[in-house]
Amino acid sequence: QLHRRGFRCLHGVDGSAGMLEQARSTGLYQELRLCVLGTEPLPAPAEHYDAVTVGGALGEGQVPSTVLPELLRVTKPGGFLCLTTRSNPSNLRYKAELEAALGQLERSGAWQKLLAQEVEYWERATTEEESTQGTGYISGVVYIYQKCPVPHPEEG
């Protein structure tokens, strides 16, 4: 979808070499790197990207919410971060932890929340217990933040 909307310079990271090979086979990415989010620095310089997205990885047993400062580090001031997580019962503790970390960064002035939108039919549930009200789907949330510009010291 990003490519169809004019985004042509796409870089990707994943902790799985197999997933990187699948991504490479699409022909959509200019750069793909092996990186385990939350345990090692992203392979990019500070303030490098106009937009950073994390889809399908912020969840219980996956990428820890402590990755947020690293995502901010590689985003240009004024740039955007689009993050997602699931709202299924087994992910609620993680979601609460993530939202606390998101709020802390907003209160510190690191970024501004532009959107937090619930999506009822995020993905198919694998068990009835995970299904949102018996729909067969798991709900999720999309968060969009904009990195705040770095204040410049007063010239005097």
Automatic annotation (TrEMBL):
Signal peptide range in chain numbering: none
InterPro entries noted in UniProt: Methyltransf_11 (IPR013216), SAM-dependent_MTases_sf (IPR029063)
Membrane-spanning parts: none
Molecular function via GO: S-adenosylmethionine-dependent methyltransferase activity
SUPFAM superfamilies reported for this sequence: S-adenosyl-L-methionine-dependent methyltransferases
Record domain Methyltransferase type: where: 4-82
Protein name as catalogued: MET27 protein
Organism, scientific name: Struthidea cinerea
Phylogenetic classification of the source organism: Eukaryota, Metazoa, Chordata, Craniata, Vertebrata
Gene giving rise to this polypeptide: Mettl27
